[in-house]
Amino acid sequence: MSAIIRSVATSVRRLYPEALADKSWDNTGLLLEAPYRADIPRPSNKHIVLLTIDLTRAVAAEAIEKKAAAIVSYHPIIFRPLKSLTLRNTKQDSLIRLAQAGISVYSPHTAVDAALGGVNDWLADGISGGKDSEESREVLVPVNGVEGFEGAGMGRLVTLKEAASVGTLVDRVKKYLGMKYLMVAEAAKHKSHAGIRKIGLCAGSGGSLFKGLDADLYFTGELSHHEALAAKENGISVIACFHTNTERGYLSKGMQPRLQEVLADEWSRVVEAEREGKDGFEVVVSTADKDPYEIV
Prior knowledge:
Blueprint: H1 3-15, E1 29-32, E2 47-52, H2 57-66, E3 70-73, H3 90-100, E4 104-107, H4 110-114, H5 119-128, E5 134-142, E6 153-164, H6 166-177, E7 183-185, H7 188-191, E8 196-205, H8 207-210, E9 217-222, H9 225-233, E10 237-240, H10 248-274, E11 281-285
Parallel strand pairs: 2-3, 2-11, 3-4, 8-9, 9-10
Antiparallel strand pairs: 1-4, 5-6, 6-8, 7-10
Helix pairs in contact: 1-10, 2-3
């Protein structure tokens, strides 16, 4: 493995260890190790690391155009075993072209969900207004045994110090995520101004984590029709924003500055130990990465 890709993988693992991920179904880690193309002229003296939620053809083309060294894709582009690699399949086409361009791919996915300071804590800050407005914040499913990451886990249950209306929380989420429209299922009791204090939240799709959860409101990217209906029937309101809209903002607000800092530290060790040069890294967020849905 080249020193460049090793530095990227090590830095991501320092922030979001693979041991935090739900390996019972998720596929995290270095998914594509491409031979580094030293023969490709770079537009700057920095090794570019491109952050994205989904690794689509458009994002792959963007990475190739930027002459990136690596992509950190929140969602894994390889999820099930591959039996072939052909240009007819869009994901396989992207992988082939990235390998040809010397661009490696790392996916941290549910490790980012579980980590303290990860995407779920970022979401919690947005809907609550920050920890000063919270009575408590706890994980829904703890992930234990990872040294230095005590208290990590999937999902969050936030209890507000003061009850808030569904409308207030909707306005707060819209502003935080930069969205004009959300999907809201307001329970009958909350239409009569009963306040929200307990908020269960999960980036992406939270239905499996919310089962049996005692909360006033569920905040997530998506719930199925029947999950939303059941919640509303049981007096629980729902704010849903479409899957990746609860994840994408974290790239620029959380992952980018943290990874930039850790990569600088990691690369300084490589330079000192291996005399690899002093180019360093630039972590950028994809502009081609978008949710597949448009709200019109």
